[in-house]
C-alpha cells in the first residue's frame, strides 16, 4: 500500500530528510548535555531510528529497515558531524529545524501507520504504531539523556497529539477505503500544521481537573509554618 502512495525514490528521499532532522535534534540535545562525540552519535542514531526500529520489531519486519539500508544508518552520522563542528550555527537555525521536525512527524506518523496495517495489524494497533514511529525516537533520546520525555511534560507544546490526529486520519481512510496519495498527504499535512500551530501559540494538553500545583502547595505549607 505504501509503495502505491509514493514512488520508492520519493519515499526514500522523504525518509532520509526526516531521519536527518530527527538526528539533528538528538545531536543538539547531546551537545547541551555535554556529551562526547560518541554520545552525540548515539543520541542522533537513537532519535532518528528509534521509532521505526521499534515499529519494525513489533510487526516482524526483520531485519529492520535501519539495518538493511545503509543510508538510514549513515544519515544520523552526517548530522553528528554537522552538529559536532557547527552546533552554534545549527542552534541559530532552531526554528527551521523545528519546522522540518514537524514535517518529519507528519510523514512518519502516516508511513508508520500504513506499514503496520500492511503487516496485518488492526486499525487501532496500526494507529498506535504510527504514533510510536513518529515519537518513539524522541522518547528514547530523552530517556538516554536522563530527562522526562518531552511528550509527557505539561510545559511543552503539543507533540504527540498532532501525530495521533495524523495516524487516526490514516486509519479512517483505510476503514472507508479512501486512502490514496491525496488523503495520505492530507493526513501528514494536518499533523504538520497542528504541530506548527502548537509551537506558534504554545498549545498544551490539559492537566488533571482542579489540580493544585506542587509549588502552590509548598507555598501554603511554608506560610502555615
From TrEMBL:
Pfam families, per database record: Gly_transporter
Membrane topology value: Multi-pass membrane protein
InterPro entries attached to this UniProt entry: Gly_transporter (IPR005115)
Keyword Membrane: yes
Domain Glycine transporter, chain residue ranges per copy: 13-87, 99-173
Transmembrane spans: 12-31, 38-58, 70-87, 157-178, 184-203
Top-level lineage group: Bacteria
Subcellular location: Cell membrane
Keywords on record: Cell membrane, Membrane, Transmembrane, Transmembrane helix
Protein family: Belongs to the UPF0126 family.
UniProt protein name: Trimeric intracellular cation channel family protein
Organism: Streptomyces lateritius
Taxonomic classification: Bacteria, Bacillati, Actinomycetota, Actinomycetes, Kitasatosporales
Amino acid at each position: 500500500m505504501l509503495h502505491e502512495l509514493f514512488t520508492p525514490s520519493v519515499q526514500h528521499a522523504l525518509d532520509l530528510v526526516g531521519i536527518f532532522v530527527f538526528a539533528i535534534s538528538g545531536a543538539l540535545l547531546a551537545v547541551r548535555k555535554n556529551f562526547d562525540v560518541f554520545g552525540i552519535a548515539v543520541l542522533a542514531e537513537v532519535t532518528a531510528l528509534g521509532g521505526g526500529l521499534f515499529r519494525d520489531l513489533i510487526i516482524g519486519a526483520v531485519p529492520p529497515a535501519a539495518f538493511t539500508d545503509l543510508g538510514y544508518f549513515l544519515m544520523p552520522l552526517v548530522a553528528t558531524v554537522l552538529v559536532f563542528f557547527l552546533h552554534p550555527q545549527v542552534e541559530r537555525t532552531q526554528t527551521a529545524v523545528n519546522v522540518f521536525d514537524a514535517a518529519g512527524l507528519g510523514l512518519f506518523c502516516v508511513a508508520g501507520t500504513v506499514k503496520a496495517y500492511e503487516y496485518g495489524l488492526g486499525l487501532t494497533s496500526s494507529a498506535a504504531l504510527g504514533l510510536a514511529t513518529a515519537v518513539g525516537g524522541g522518547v528514547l533520546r530523552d530517556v538516554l539523556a536522563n530527562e522526562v520525555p518531552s511528550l509527557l511534560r505539561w510545559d511543552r507544546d503539543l507533540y504527540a497529539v498532532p501525530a495521533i490526529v495524523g495516524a487516526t486520519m490514516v486509519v479512517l481512510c483505510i476503514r472507508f477505503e479512501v486512502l490514496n496519495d491525496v488523503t495520505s498527504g492530507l493526513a501528514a499535512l494536518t499533523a504538520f500544521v497542528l504541530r506548527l500551530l502548537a509551537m506558534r501559540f504554545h498549545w498544551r494538553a490539559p492537566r488533571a481537573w482542579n489540580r493544585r500545583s506542587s509549588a502552590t502547595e509548598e507555598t501554603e505549607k511554608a506560610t502555615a509554618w
